[in-house]
Amino acid sequence: MINPNNFIDWIMQLNFKMIAKAGELISKEGNFDIIHAHDWLVAYSAKAIKDAYNIPMCATIHATESGRNSGIHDEVQRYINDTEWMLTYESSEVIVNSNYMKCELQRLFGLPFEKISVIPNGINMNMYNGIEKDYEYRRRVASDNEKIIMYAGRLVYEKGVQNLIAAAPKILSGYHDTKFVIAGSGAMNNELKAQVDYLGIGNKVYFTGQLSYKDLCKMYKVADVAVFPSTYEPFGVVAIEAMYAGIPTVVSDIGGLNEIVEHRN
């Protein structure tokens, strides 16, 4: 019996549905030219379609289970790690978004360097068209006298938001008129809010929740500094978005971030 609360079982049901849909499309339209699988979530459907119809397959690996968790610590993580290996092994070509990720895949899975292509992520160059500094929007999160230090992204451990919050009291001791704006949602939402309360800085940290794309662009435009303190980051699109908005951007010297942010430039 399938347990709907079991994540791996749910993913397998997703793969079964994708195989059925692909077969339906092939029957109606003919074979695909190539299968492009994004990460382990679709690995089994991609492999099944590849084998059944003799279609070449490539894969994009956006991140690894080992990287996200600083190693493999339980059976679920091991299953995902093994599935990632299978996907890269079965693919004719593997795409990653940074040289850091290319080295990570080679180290973890023993892939030949020539099988891995680096294609950096990009952003919409029109994302700030028509968006100017909106002071009324800014006043929703900070007073006019406060400088905004913002973070945007998922609220999960590897994004390092807990480290930014831990550093906040020291920053506030030297710069009293500072407001930390945390934009995003995720599994650590309640834990991070509890950390803020424990440090007694609730009046200096504002959690926006998940922002719409337009509101995120507005937030970049009104912030004074953007900080992305990741502990693991294959690329870091948010850093490019922040720099493109014209604000100083501070990042961890880790992963793909140090390939796109040049120190003090």
Helix content: 40-55%
Q: Topology as H/E string? A: HEHEHHEHEHEHEHEHEHEH
Rg (CA only): 21 Å
Instruction: Give the DSSP E fraction (strand runs of 2 or more residues).
Output: 5-15%
Principal-axis shape equals elongated
The overall strand count is 9
Structural class: alpha/beta
Strand arrangement within the widest β-sheet reads 7-6-5-8-9
Main beta sheet: strand number and arrangement? 5 strands, parallel
Mean pLDDT: 94
Question: What's the helix count?
Answer: 11
Task: Please mark out the parts with pLDDT under 50 across 5 or more consecutive residues, or reply none.
Answer: none
- The CA-CA distance between the termini, in Å, is 57 Å
Structural summary, described in words:
Helix 1 runs parallel beside helix 2 (about 45-55), helix 2 runs parallel beside helix 4 (about 75-90) and helix 7 (about 160-175) packs parallel to helix 8. This protein is elongated. The protein has helices at about 5-30, 45-55, 65-70, 75-90, 100-110, 135-140, 160-175, 190-200, 215-220, 235-245, 255-260, and strands spanning about 35-40, 55-60, 95, 115-120, 145-150, 180-185, 205-210, 225-230, 250. The strands form two sheets. It has a five-stranded parallel β-sheet, with helices on both faces. It has a four-stranded parallel β-sheet with strand order 1-2-3-4. It is built from eleven helices and nine strands. The protein is of the alpha/beta class. Strand 3 (about 95), helix 5 and strand 4 (about 115-120) form a beta-alpha-beta unit. About 45% of the residues lie in helices and about 15% in strands.
